[in-house]
Amino acid sequence: xxxxxxxxKREYLERVRSRSFVIMTFFIxxxxxxxxxxxxxxxxxGTNETKHIVVVAADRDTAEMIxxxxxxxxxxxxxxxxxxxxxxPPTHFTVEVSTDTTDSARAALTKKVKDKQLDGFLWxxxxxxxxxxxxxxxxxxxxxxxxxxxxxxxxxxLRRSALKNKGLKEDDIESALQSVDVEPQSPLGKxxxxxxxxxxxxxxxVMVLYMTVLLYGIxxxxxxxxxxxxxxxxxxxxxxxxxxxxxxxxxxVGAVGLTQVVIWMxxxxxxxxxxxxxxxxxxxxxxxxxxxxxxxxYFLLGYILYxxxxxxxxSMVNSEQEAQQLQFLVMMxxxxxxIMIMQIFQHPNSQLALWGSLFPFTAPLVMFTRIAMQPGSxxxxxxxxxxxxxxxxxxxxxxxxLCGRIYRVGILMYGKKPTLxxxxxxxxxx
Amino acid sequence: xxxxxxxxxxxxxxxxxxxxxxxxxxxxxxxFGLLGPNGAGKTSTIRMMxxxxxxxxxxxxxxxxxxxxxxxxxxxxxxxxxxLYKKMKIIDQLIFLGELHGMRAGDARQQAMLWCKRLExxxxxxxxxxxxxxxxxxxxxxxxxxxxxxxxxxMDEPFFGLDPINAALLKDVMLDLKKQGKTILFSTHRMDQVxxxxxxxxxxxxxxxxxxxxxxxxxxxxxxSNVQIEYEGNGDFLEKNPLVSAYNNYGNYVExxxxxxxxxxxxxxxxxxxxxxxxFELMEPSLEEIFINTVGKS
Lengths: 430, 298
Prior knowledge:
The complex is a heterodimer.
Chain A: H1 2-17, H2 19-45, E1 50-57, H3 60-80, E2 92-98, H4 103-114, E3 120-124, H5 126-131, E4 135-138, H6 144-165, H7 170-177, H8 195-229, H9 233-237, H10 242-271, H11 273-278, H12 280-286, H13 289-316, H14 320-346, H15 351-358, H16 363-373, H17 382-410, H18 420-428
Parallel strand pairs in A: 1-2, 1-3
Antiparallel strand pairs in A: 3-4
Chain B: E1 4-13, E2 16-26, E3 30-35, H1 42-49, E4 57-62, E5 65-66, E6 75-78, H2 90-100, H3 105-118, H4 134-146, E7 152-156, H5 164-179, E8 183-188, H6 191-197, E9 200-205, E10 208-214, H7 215-221, E11 226-232, E12 244-249, E13 254-258, H8 264-274, E14 276-283, H9 287-297
Parallel strand pairs in B: 3-8, 3-9, 6-7, 7-8
Antiparallel strand pairs in B: 1-2, 1-4, 4-5, 9-10, 11-13, 11-14, 12-13
Helix pairs in contact in B: 2-3
């Protein structure tokens, strides 16, 4: 036990003092900020440009109707801008109309678009309208938000004109076409957390869980590999047992991981204190002490399980390249959990959710997600939580035994990568 | 009480028998040489002595008791596969290894400084291992094995890769430890070092002990059956001579073993008749010759 502590202490101090720890501590939050927030910001900013387009229809009335539809939508948009800034890119359209639907006219317009004299044209011939499929010739075929909005405007205009032709009054048309918002309400009433915040908070915590388990699991592997290649193993084995070395390594690196998570959470608290206080009521529903406790429990269990596997892998191989091949296999269930979680957010009570949360290798992420998303009392799924923790503990026990035996032999084996039958033999050695 | 006692120890990996029914014991005090060609089972034997691996069968007693991990605090080990943490400072590294051997951090620091001074590397205490030369790293490793003042010191090829000056420094330390009554196990296939340092030896080959006992007694057992001859001219004619049973040309001199019953005086006459003799000395066979012969036969 004493040796385990000394080894863990060395591992912890050497790592926390290292430059890479400092870099990682700052870099990971920046990276997460980069991949989540920046693209959204960029997508929402739009380009603030004016697009010149032409609507081509067989008769002037239809063309004018579509034109007004597009321009009206645009006015609506600019009125609503403060409230609905999120989804609408502020692109302006100036719309011209044309009634020339000959093939040569289309060719001429196409050429104009190609030559950048025109941004696009909408081909609204009677056939196309009947088929409900209009061609919009543009160079920006990939700006799907903009093109989608254009589709909405045209649909809206066509509906209005159809209803108008049936003799409905302007007001009736307006009220008939009004869109409806469906707002989810939890049966728990006001106490229930805001679903959107719950989703993002859970996703955030799951990502932190995923990254720390992955990152520090791999760290254990690399550090064992380093010890093996630097041949210090044998000196240490002359006083510490292989079991103590493995345990010390896992504990030391795990403590570094916890330190890092605590730094991240602490700095989040400090930097966003204002926002947190302002939204205290909502946050209390999402981030309770209970959640933090479960976070710690599933982090520790997940980390120990995966780092034990990683320790075995690290002891088997002789180089980084060999390690990377095996590392992927070990981390597979973790990646699988992330894919499952996307499904589980949609269907929290599915069979997949149940089995995923009981299977020990996916349990840390899946069960944690379910606990976070569970409406009402956790006692409803109490037996599942207990079973998942129990199964994980049992698996950890088995894995520590198994990997300990591989580790013990592996660290003294230099040279070629062992085959599966060889590893089986290692496990059987006295 | 023997420092270590192996009785009928056997270790096999799969089909390969690394150590086969090996028995020997090392009395306290003195230098014991564990010899053998590459792959004879030396390292496997040492690993079992300090509990890195367990024997398949047989018994190992360390300090008079069946092996227990606690006893390792009195054992120092310099493995053949040298290694230290590359990115760690020398002093931190030595304290860490000292603590693993049951020392308090403060004592470990003090001892580390003393040893570094003695081995003339105290200027490097705050440097990282990767900044050191191979020879200096070896000294650090040597200190790591001795820091906790062990009673039983195991050294696997300790002189490998050292220049003559550092080798001499190390040899002095070893002799000093011997004077203090420590038991030193010294594993090598360099026979010249064994002859200079060891009191007793065990020669193993293919996992079996083929020769063991007090070094002087072993050599005396062969009698003065060897002749070292220095002469001018080509001496290859000696190789075919019936008086000679073994012939070794070392360049500057030759060493021959007399055939059973052959008379050295007769040989001297033969040589003197063919060339000018500068030196003709009767001696015990060198350990190297004993080694080659014994291993060749077994």
